[in-house]
Specification:
The complex is a heterodimer of chains A (199) and B (141). With 199 residues, chain A is mainly α. Chain A contains 9 helices and 4 strands. Chain A has a 3-stranded antiparallel sheet. In chain A, helix 1 packs across helix 4. The termini of chain A are far apart. In chain B, the strands form 3 sheets. In chain B, strands 4, 5, 6, 7, 8, 9 and 10 form a 7-stranded mixed sheet that branches. In chain B, a hairpin with a 4-residue loop joins strand 11 and strand 12. Chain B is globular and about 45 Å long. Chain B starts with a strand and ends with a strand. The chains are: A mainly alpha (199), B mainly beta (141). Chains A and B meet through helix 1, helix 3, helix 8 and strand 4 of A and strand 2 and strand 4 of B.
Amino acid sequence: MEKIKYTDLLDYILLVLKIVRDRKPKFFVSLVSLMRVFNYNTSFGEIQEIGKYLETRGWINAIFILGDVRIQLTTSGVIYIEEKHIEIKEKYDKFIIEFRKEKTEEQLLVDVFSEQDTNEAKKPIFELIEKALVKMKEKGIDLDFTKDLEVIKVEVSKNFPDLRLIGIKLNRLASIPFLTTEITELKYYFSTPDSEIFS
Amino acid sequence: MIIVKEKYKSCSLNFKSYPKYVDMPYIRVVLKNLQTGKIDTVSRDFLVDTGASISIINNKYSELLKETESCDKVELIFGKGKSQHYDVYKVALIIKDNVFETLVAFVPDCPFLLLGHYAFLERNSYNLFHSSIKQTRLVRN
């Protein structure tokens, strides 16, 4: 099955936010969960990019937290959707039928409303760290690097992790060639729009 | 009145002794090509640079400016003192739902995206760098 087009995806996100806003005006939707609902397989880095783009266009309010982006439609977003509504809705309905045959739109909304809590959002980060630790043990890497990863793990488990400390540790770990995938993905998780702590 | 507020962005400085951090006034921008009406599908961080005489965009925008004629050329001198002429384009900067029409110089190999004085910062009433709360504020009446 063909992957959903990026530009269509942006419209679908806004459309879902409009439906959500009509029912629960103050609700912030988890963009990570929304991507899952849309079966849009992507990196956390791209999810952040989508959040930043829609925010810069003025269509959404976004809160960037560790492991998730919580979004809500703005008044400009409502106007945009209302102006493009018929065009988007037709495409969206087609998409829903094609991609989620087993679920109705109502059921999709239930998925969106089942809010992802903060600890749940951190889950993929812990999984990535564990994966990296296993690889390191297999290769018998320097103990200091293993300890660095454990420090990151402890920091992530805190309510307010020290992102700068995590940044220093990840920059050090980036020198390990066989961990490139895990470290790059971890960097995405810790780079919020307010910070670029990685070299 | 238009007020744009944006938090500074923390950037690393690779000191030889130990990495240090500095907060910089970046603003997230979506660019619109005013000749074709095409709007970029990604947003990018521009440094608000009070030392730049004109705003500068780089190769990241070559696709957006494809088949667009430049409206002028401008001579720019960079840090090393060598001057060169660069194409100038009419664009709109979309920043948090506000649209600012301006002129930008296209410097393909420039490592940064900059917001400068000409036709942008100079048109604002105030450009505030509130360092204690790490926030840039652009005010235009």
